[in-house]
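The protein record now logged underneath.
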Amino acid sequence: MVEIDMGIPLEKVNEFSLKELLGMAIKAEIGAREFYKSMAANVEIETLKKKLEFLAGEEEKHEEFLRKLYAQSFPGEEIVFPKEHVGPELKPVAEKIKNVQDMLELIRWAMEAERIAKEFYSKLEEMTDDNAKKGLLRYLASMENTHYSILKTEYELLLDWEMYSQMMHVGP
């Protein structure tokens, strides 16, 4: 159901310049935002929809942070989005999600993308000498880890569908 391009392995990050890596990161945040927005639009479970909309908003904030970091690092230069990317690149969901198995597959891939994003930002942090930039990249890595945890919780709830459907009637 989900179309995935696995991209370059994380170990190859050192083969790219900081400029290329920031371009990849911005492109990844845009893709993640679009994936979460499209998934939220196609999910019928209200509590899950709200969490996916929250994640889409978070990815938009990350894009803004990275654009500022790029502008500070490379003043006056256009952002170049390399064809390459690190980890799975998730495509928007085109159809209604009909059953739990479909959602589980999508959430598993989203978890993997968040896990790799965390490692990617940690690697970028190691590549820069500027303490302010290091702090921003550490923050982004931490946020991606939080996204992973949110998705993992939803995944585990979906595994026990009865409990999840009962929670929908009780409230948040």
The radius of gyration is 17 Å. The first strand starts at residue 4 and ends at 5. The chain has a mean pLDDT of 81.
